[in-house]
Every structure is written in C-alpha cells, then in structure tokens.
Amino acid sequence: QTSPTTHTKFGHYYDISKKMSPELCQSVKWHSFYLHEELSAEAGMRVWNMNSGYARLLQSIQRIISQEGFDGSDPQKKQRNVLRIGIQSLGSPLWGDDVCCSDAPEDPHSLTKFLYALRGLLRKSLSACIITVPAHLIQNKAIIERVTNLSDMVVGLESFIGSERETNPLYKDYHGLVHVRQIPRLNSLICDVSDTKDLAFRLKRKLFTIERLHLPPDLSGTVSRASKQELAGSTGLLSSGCGAVAMGNRHLDF
C-alpha cells in the first residue's frame, strides 16, 4: 500500500540473527528432498519428457500430497494446515539442468514443463510453493519469460555488489533493488500493476527491510559531465515555456 497504514504494527518482523532450536525442528513434521540420494537408486530416469531431477522432485511432491491428505479432491476428515513447499535454485546445474551453462541448452523445456506440472498439483491441493531461481545465470531471456508467465507472483532482487551503484554515494543507505515483476492475477486476463515501483532493500544485523527508494539531492561537485550536458539540454527545452533565458550551457535561474 502506498498510503501509510493506520496500525501501529504492520507486517512480520523476523530476527534473522536467531537460529531455530533443534527441539522446534524435531517437533515439526517436514520432508526433505536431496537429489543425489534420490538418483542413486535409479539414475537416468526420465518421466513426462523432462530430466530426471525434475521428474523425481515432482513425484516426491505428488506422493506427499496424496499420502498426507493434502489432495483437494478428497474430502477433508480433519482440519489441516497448508503444505508449504520450498525449492532452492531451480534451474541451476545442481538439478542436472544446463540452462545456466549455455545460451542454447540441450533441453530448454524441462524447466517450464516441471513448472507447468507443479502448477497443476498446487491448484488441486492444499499447498503453496515458493521457488528461488538464479535468473542472473540464465542467459536465455526467453526461458526467464516462460518462468515468469508460469508463476503467480515474481519478485527479483538486484544486489549492488559488483556494480557501479556499490560505490555510488547516492545508494549508500541501501544494498540492492527489489523488482516486482508480476503479482497474482487469478480470474483475470491481465495482472494488476503496483503503484510503487522504486523499492530497495537494506540488510541489517537482525532485519531484512524493504522500503521505498529515496535518493537525496545530488548537491556535490562530482556530477558527471554527461549529467551536466543532459541537465543543460533539458533547461534549454524548458526556457521557452517558463519565460527564463538560458544562454549557452547555463542553468536556469529562478
């Protein structure tokens, strides 16, 4: 929401410096999937015309949904929570996919086929899934567009590490940008567009905060020559409309 909220406390506040206790992890029912262990018994298996890693993961999710009673088509005999699924670095070489290694991968459709089948499982079950994709490693932009279209909500993080913005004093208070690529559009032909587009994140000792990007005015004398020329050109266009006189490359005076 663009307007300030009236509540005194909004959102969730997690202390990222704390770790979950072993007792809490043991009390929660959870399932893990390690591709190396899953493929040790049957290597090279291909199901639904996709690579073995995606096929085994899809079978594991389908088995948990069926055995644990999260299938939406079956009558629910008791109250249940939502099955939460987390998949890390989907599309990376760890899953046996080469979309991150080449601009023309051997099987560019395995990733999208897996997402399409997973989308069908989520629609008919009491489950939700969050996936991380190393988009900066995938060279084929068409694959990124397909992944975006097959997702309900897409959020991208752009870090300042290794870029010119890391040493730029204008971005000294932030560590990266947040790009809202797509938001849910259920029962609609087009997706809604958020009014807030300039978002940045800041990593603190205990918090990961997302806020609006507020850049301070650049009043220093280290403005680049290109910026000065652009400013001079813009002032030349404005001089005819506002009545001020701009001679040469001089700035407007008010």
UniProtKB/TrEMBL annotation:
Entry keyword annotation includes Cytoplasm:
yes
Keywords assigned: Cytoplasm, Nucleus, tRNA processing
What Gene3D superfamilies does UniProt report for this protein, alphabetically?
Answer: P-loop containing nucleotide triphosphate hydrolases
Instruction: Give the highest taxon in the source lineage.
Output: Eukaryota
What does the function comment of this entry state? Component of the elongator complex which is required for multiple tRNA modifications, including mcm5U (5-methoxycarbonylmethyl uridine), mcm5s2U (5-methoxycarbonylmethyl-2-thiouridine), and ncm5U (5-carbamoylmethyl uridine). The elongator complex catalyzes the formation of carboxymethyluridine in the wobble base at position 34 in tRNAs.
Family named by the database record: Belongs to the ELP4 family.
Q: What is this protein called?
A: Elongator complex protein 4
Q: Which organism is it from?
A: Thryothorus ludovicianus (Carolina wren)
Gene field: Elp4
